[in-house]
Specification:
247 residues, alpha/beta, 7-stranded parallel beta sheet, 8 helices, 7 strands, globular
Length: 247
């Protein structure tokens, strides 16, 4: 997967899955705008890419802010050039039973996962080069219901329809739009919130018998970002080891 002379923006790239994706794209030759709401995390991830021989810049951006999204694209264009690739990875996940959901909780999830994705797609539609690639990181929870995850899962399900529409709207310029639906994946966030019991339950339900890794997701993202995926658009790819149920 040769991404030489390509420019990529990866959101939520300071840690975990996003960082793994940013590093993989850089290994394939792309110059990467590492965007994260944490300035420190973005700087550390960009520095690691450069120390490994890649090219990267750090951009501080909270995708719940439309102004930040606009500035993120402006920074990429000014320092690296017009982007060829967007990986909309930034997201938040917290469980909450429906009977305990507050308006504040709802907004905190939807402003990042749904609103953030939509406005990233908007900027990508305006600024990506013809023939570009958009990859949205969704979740298998968008298809496989899980207790306590109504707000999170529905926010991710919303991004799937955004991908479907964007794939139609951006097709005349040769831009493909797809999403990845990871299962439970070993990231700092997962290790912080998922109990050992929950992790083992996920392993027991997964035919391949383990949790996902950031590399598993990054490899698929790199393929969808490459020219080799030119005949794939409007698709939602489960990357969860074959797990068919979250409960």
């Amino acid at each position: 997967m040769d991404l030489k002379n390509q420019v990529a923006i990866v959101t939520g790239a300071g840690l975990g899955m996003g960082r793994g994706i940013a590093e993989k794209l850089a290994q394939c030759g792309a110059a990467v705008a590492v965007a994260d709401k944490s300035q420190e995390s973005a700087a550390e991830a960009a520095a690691a890419i450069e120390q490994a021989g890649g090219r990267a810049i750090a951009v501080t951006a909270d995708v719940s802010s439309v102004d930040d999204i606009t500035r993120m694209f402006d920074a990429c264009r000014a320092r690296l050039g017009d982007p060829d690739i967007l990986v909309a990875n930034a997201g938040v996940s917290r469980p909450c039973p429906i009977t305990q959901v507050t308006e504040e909780f709802f907004s905190s999830i939807y402003n990042v996962n749904a609103k953030g994705t939509l406005f990233c797609l908007k900027e990508a539609g305006l600024h990506l080069k013809a023939g570009g690639r958009i990859v949205v990181i969704s979740s298998c929870s968008a298809r496989l219901p899980e207790l306590g995850m109504a707000v999170y899962s529905s926010s991710k399900a919303a991004t799937q329809l955004m991908v479907d529409v964007a794939a139609l709207e951006f097709a005349p310029r040769g831009i493909t739009v797809n999403s990845i639906l990871p299962g439970l994946t070993e990231t700092p966030t997962m290790l912080r919130f998922a109990s050992q019991e929950h992790r083992q339950q996920a392993i027991d339900k997964t035919p391949l018998g383990r949790l996902g890794t950031t590399r598993d997701i990054a490899e698929v993202a790199a393929f969808l970002a490459s020219k080799e995926s030119q005949w794939i658009t409007g698709q939602h790819i489960l990357v969860n080891g074959g797990c068919l149920s979250n409960y």
